[in-house]
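To fix ideas, we give here one paired sequence and structure record:
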Amino acid sequence: MRAVLGSCDVPLAQAFDLALVDLDGVTYKGHEPIDHAADGLAGARAAGMRLVFVTNNASREPESVAEQLTSLDIPAAPADVMTAAQACARLLGDHVPQGSRVLVVGGAGLRTAVAAAGYVVVDSAEDEPAAVAQGFAPTLAWEQLAEAAYAVASGAVHVASNLDLSLPTARGFAPGNGALVGAVTNATGVEPVSAGKPSPAMYAMAVERAGARRPLVIGDRLDTDLAGARAGGYPGLHVLTGVNDGRDDVLAAPGLRPDFIGADLRSLLEPHTAPTQAEDGWWTSGDAAARVRDGALELSGRGANGGVDAVRAACAAAWDHVDAGGSLDAGSVPDLPVGGAS
């Protein structure tokens, strides 16, 4: 499978009618806003693009998420939010009938979604639940994880809202739901099914809800946001404001690669020109150029100092070389800082 950078002659906000926007690492980090997120999304809306915020966080209810976004100058209503809790509740229907007892290990958002889907929420394995629904909550303790392990070991279906190993906060990266799910998996030996990204289920639900024809996925993580976009056949924009950086893009396997790369959400307001290859093997994007020679990545022009064009050129050169069967020395790929330019 080959996955290359795309080209768009008009701003992305004009070419796509719906943005499926991740939250942590894209619009905010913890409780702090991400630079230019509000301006970029306001401009996208002004261009006619609809926004749905799609998050692997299952601990909060849509109303709470919408309130936080609005407080950060990103106006949002609960209907504009799609959470992994909602996807998890829907996924339960593939395994247990409505009316079943479900042990919920997570926050208020997951409890509300499971109850709204027609299940009886319980808190103990002694209630003999048919399933365990597990999502992240900062207040989770050993007792709740133990109850989940007891229930799963007794035959309950284990459904996780997501398997993110880490989550970005204002202080750095902290353990995510996947790390907590791993504790239950290690105790039981039973692998859970997951509703969150990289499964494209939430994207499909959001697209159906919005009636969109040309959706665009926007995220900061390659292994969840962009992998989910590839899995669902949706174009994806990687913004370099969260977990993964430009170097990760260069080294990404085909199933994790974005179609577009931007420094931040202002990149929604710009055309995106795909890198081009010259006869001498150099790939160029803007004033940056890159090629792979003897398995090593080389950068030239402005690309030597980083920037988004350097990331794009490097991706084109590296992906073309690797997809043609060549090997790439990861040690030759430098950090590619993007600064504030998009």
